[in-house]
């Protein structure tokens, strides 16, 4: 039987497809992917930052010490990290839309549970469930890479990554809802959008048709084979750097509202508004980085971005201090205390650079590892999630140990130096085979 592809007659009228072959046009599929997938990403990210924005109320009502609250922030990140690689491999096997849909539906009962939980272990389990649902992030990357517009796949991946501005959604809405109706209503605010986006994915999105070559291995065998492939160092080259930027962004997005409140004496709503430009800058940088990487390789951009972020972290690491220098003509008093606008400017510039790095790196991963995109993207998100889960306890312990509120930036500075040393050692190995 001949296949009837849709075409245009000389008059410009589209010829309808035959019954039994309802294949949507490629442009429609790409448009749906570019619109719905980032929306799902933004909602998942907003759920990830839920505990951070409601931190003051949670700590007060549960009488949580700082380290216990840091564990609560880290739980969704840890679970999301462990779910990322299996979700990416499942998306390659079963289809990104199916896995994203399942992950979004997993989040719903745990959002409801947060609004009704009473004890600390209940909140930990709810965070664990939301983290498992974050496998949608990895599945969405695979989905966009396979069905996005081929000529502008970097831009599509950048738009998808810009879903990180979902953290800003929480910064804007949750304090208002918390003040008006109480913080227990705030998690329920996300239920309807999550269900709505899941419904739109089910109705309008499609999965790529996986090529079938005879007898396929079982699901467990396919996952095992993917994990064995990770012994190849070439799959880790770009994933390590991406993991640092992704993890640093997530950790700072969780930490910033509380840090701004403690350092500058802001209210929860004001701190959330001042924290908002940081995720917006990262999202804009991702779109720009992905679009630029479509035109050029930009392999060296990760060095320049890393160096710029290193300078920003060095400046942000300086705590307020006073110093007296005994000069020839008398003592000279020096005082440093970064004003709020200066702190914000450094954060925005650093966020823009981090976004450029994230967008260009994901395009490079797609270019270098097209056949292993699911594996390498899942690995990058796993590394980023593990690093992000480490940051809240490190921030708390570092501040308690050093007595400095900027200890978190100091740790990020040291971690980036280590990451750049890994990049340098990889460069010394020679070009990628």
UniProtKB/TrEMBL annotation:
Residue spans crossing the bilayer: 28-55, 67-91, 98-117, 123-142, 154-174, 186-205, 235-256, 268-289, 301-321, 341-361, 373-395, 401-425
GO CC, alphabetical: membrane
Membrane topology designation: Multi-pass membrane protein
Chief place of localization: membrane
Keyword terms: Membrane, Nitrate assimilation, Transmembrane, Transmembrane helix
KW GTP-binding (keyword) present: no
Cellular compartment(s): Membrane
Residue ranges occupied by any Major facilitator superfamily (MFS) profile domain in the UniProt entry: 30-430
SUPFAM superfamilies recorded: MFS general substrate transporter (SSF103473)
Region (Disordered): 1-21
Domain of life from the UniProt record: Bacteria
Pfam annotation, one family: MFS_1
GO terms for biological process, alphabetical: nitrate assimilation
A single MF term (Gene Ontology): nitrate transmembrane transporter activity
Family per record: Belongs to the major facilitator superfamily. Nitrate/nitrite porter (TC 2.A.1.8) family.
Protein name (database record): Nitrate/nitrite transporter
Source organism of this protein record: Halomonas beimenensis
């Amino acid at each position: 039987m001949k296949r009837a592809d849709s075409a245009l007659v000389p008059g410009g009228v589209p010829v309808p497809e035959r019954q039994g072959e309802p294949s949507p046009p490629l442009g429609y599929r790409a448009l749906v992917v570019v619109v719905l997938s980032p929306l799902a990403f933004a909602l998942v990210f907003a759920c990830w930052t839920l505990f951070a924005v409601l931190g003051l109320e949670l700590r007060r009502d549960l009488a949580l010490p700082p380290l216990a609250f840091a564990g609560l922030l880290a739980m969704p990140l840890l679970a999301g990290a462990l779910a990322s690689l299996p979700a990416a491999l499942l998306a390659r096997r079963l289809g990104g839309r199916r896995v994203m849909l399942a992950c979004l539906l997993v989040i719903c009962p745990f959002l409801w549970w947060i609004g009704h939980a009473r004890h600390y272990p209940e909140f930990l389990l709810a965070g664990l469930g939301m983290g498992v649902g974050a496998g949608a992030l990895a599945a969405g990357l695979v989905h966009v890479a396979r069905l996005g517009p081929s000529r502008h796949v970097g831009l599509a991946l950048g738009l998808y990554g810009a879903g990180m501005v979902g953290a800003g959604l929480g910064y804007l809405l949750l304090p208002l809802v918390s003040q008006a109706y109480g913080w227990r209503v705030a998690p329920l605010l996300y239920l309807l959008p999550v269900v709505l986006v899941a419904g739109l994915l089910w109705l309008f999105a499609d999965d790529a048709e996986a090529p079938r070559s005879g007898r396929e291995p079982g699901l467990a065998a396919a996952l095992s084979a993917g994990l064995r492939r990770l012994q190849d160092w070439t799959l880790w080259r770009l994933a390590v750097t991406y993991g640092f930027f992704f993890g640093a962004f997530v950790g700072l997005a969780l930490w910033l509202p509380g840090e701004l409140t403690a350092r500058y004496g802001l209210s929860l709503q004001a701190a959330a508004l001042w924290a908002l430009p940081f995720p917006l800058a990262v999202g804009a940088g991702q779109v720009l980085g992905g679009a630029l990487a479509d035109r050029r390789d930009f392999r060296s951009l990760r060095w320049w971005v890393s160096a710029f972020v290193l300078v920003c972290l060095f400046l942000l690491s300086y705590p307020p201090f006073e110093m007296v220098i005994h000069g020839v003509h008398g003592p000279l008093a020096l005082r440093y205390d970064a004003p709020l606008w200066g702190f914000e400017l450094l954060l925005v510039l650093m966020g823009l650079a981090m976004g450029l790095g994230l967008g260009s790196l994901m395009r490079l991963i797609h270019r270098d590892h097209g056949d292993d995109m699911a594996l390498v993207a899942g690995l990058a998100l796993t590394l980023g999630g593990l690093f992000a889960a480490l940051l809240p306890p490190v921030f708390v312990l570092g501040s308690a140990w050093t007595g400095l509120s900027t200890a978190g930036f100091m740790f990020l500075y040291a971690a980036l130096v280590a990451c750049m040393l890994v990049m340098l050692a990889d460069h010394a190995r020679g070009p990628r085979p």
